[in-house]
Amino acid sequence: METPLVKKNLTPESDYLAVKRLKDVKYVLWNETAKIWRIAVPVALCSLFQYLNYTSTSIYAGHLGDIELSSVSLYLSVITSIYYSLLFGMSTALATVCGQAYGAGQFQNAGIYVQRSWIILLTTCIFLLPIHIYATPILKYLGQEQKIADLAGKYAILVIPYMFSYAINLPIKKFLQAQSKVNVIMYIAIMTLLIHNGLLYIFTHVFDWGIIGLAMASNITGWIFSVALVIYTIGWCKEGWNGLSWMAFKELWEFAKLSIGSSVMICLEQWYSACIMLLAGHLDNPVIAIGSFSICLNIQSWKTMLFLGVSTALIVRVSNTLGMSHPRAAKYSFLVTMFESLLIGIIFMIVIFLSKNKFAIIFTNSKDIIHASSELAYLLGISMVLHSVSQTISGVVIGCGWQVMVGYINLACYYIVGLPIGIFLGFHQHLGVKGLWGGTMCGSILQIFVLISIICKTNWSKEVEKTASRMRIWNSTKLQKDVIENGV
Asked: Is the distance from CB of 5 to CB of 27 less than 8 angstroms?
């Protein structure tokens, strides 16, 4: 008789046995699909609702005028990309250590990690203030049209409070996601989306405040979301949260280095699109070029929000299983998620191809921008598939704690290979935005092949050993005992 895949009385502590039969494959596929999507759906909806805040702002800006659309899009694609990528990247370090801590049963450490992340992210926001205050001269220096840069700079100053809200809500989200407490985040995101659209309508249509109204709506809803998450965590999330502690200031520099290393990977990937946006500003007729490309990025980001949920679920699943010393579960969860993500990406690509002449109407009434966007549809469709794969890979990378290594890979693939090809095709071959975007996709394809090769050669048992070592280093309970014993 063949050995079954798992023991009959499966417990949360059980790892899979080796897959040997079709029946085993079906079991793993069903079991991992249920575990991944139980987390992925609420996280994806939350991410989609939050991104719809950006989309709603772009839609209202587009109906204010082409200059307003291009200016707000430039801010969202360049300035927001800079600070959000930094803050989100730093928070991914928390996703790694919190997920692995919960898998290892070290619940008491997670609350300390959150407070360390708050300190680091708030400090980072202070250092990032100049990119908002001097956004106009920065954008002009980068070659953007004066009218667009002036309005984008004005908007950047108005939404400074919104940036600081991320320093609070990103760590709390990672803390809750590591525990699979994702439904409450989704409900709060729905609430803030409704409030945001209500405020946008009132401020722009009733009060006629223009981009000032757009900024005010963003600031208010950003802080509503952050405060609601903090209230829930303090009031109803007792596991892992034991109140504020001075221990958050211990080993702060070591935690900061881990956060910075995590940020590098995310920044190099996210700033790639910002580079294309900036380069598009140097093309002939930059208003059309930036407007059409920003619409495609908005459409792509709707799908990205779904895969951010998948990626987050995979982070939680991989980090938890490594913390529980389950190497096969980590490996199989990746394989199942990659298969399903690829299928979904292909479906999105087909939808884009079928609606290529229509999707831009959501954002603008300009026939020129609608036509320009339709010409980018085939690149958008291919990009849907590439991002489906790359975001799934990101889930494994963060769950395992490989962020620093992948940062070097992103630097080589995106900026040494992809970006020069995009510049060559866009400017020297006179292909415009299509050349810029199509060329830079070459870097994305190379990055995917490199990372898949690394994952295929990964020894998952060794990753379990590395996780155990990391948990010993970041054990706050042990550190607190050492402090008390030494009288520090």
From this structure: yes
